[in-house]
Amino acid sequence: MQEKHTDINRMIESGEVELALARLAVELKQTSEDAFLYYLSGKAQMKLGNWGKAISDFLHSEQLDEDSPAVESRKMLEDIMQFYNKDMYNQ
Questions:
Q1: Which domains, ranges and CATH numbers included, belong to the chain?
Q2: pLDDT(32) > 60
Q3: Buried/exposed 10-20: b ≥16 CB within 10 Å, e otherwise
Q4: Mean pLDDT, rounded, for 45-63
Q5: Averaged pLDDT for residues 73-89
Q6: What Gene3D superfamilies would the database entry show (predicted)?
Q7: Residue 61 to residue 63: CA distance in whole angstroms
Q8: Is 26 exposed, middle or buried (0-12, 13-18, 19+ CB in 10 A)?
Q9: Which positions ≥6 away from 77 have C-beta within 8 Å?
């Protein structure tokens, strides 16, 4: 993991998600082929509850690197969404 990845991940983990997304926007303009940056963006979007944006970022990461950690994150998020939607109908 590069230093910029570590810094952004630390921001996300410490709750500075908006700051992390701002940094990600700058980094992605400079290096749009960095799969790990898209993974981190998806992780940040997921923390904010923006599940659609999170899945989109995870998919973009997967397209750039099929071994990206985004693969598992996307699957987990899709499982959560399927479970969540089923519960809505059982009330």
A1: 5-88 (1.25.40.10)
A2: yes
A3: ebbeeeebeeb
A4: 95
A5: 76
A6: Tetratricopeptide repeat domain
A7: 5
A8: exposed
A9: 46, 51, 54, 55, 58
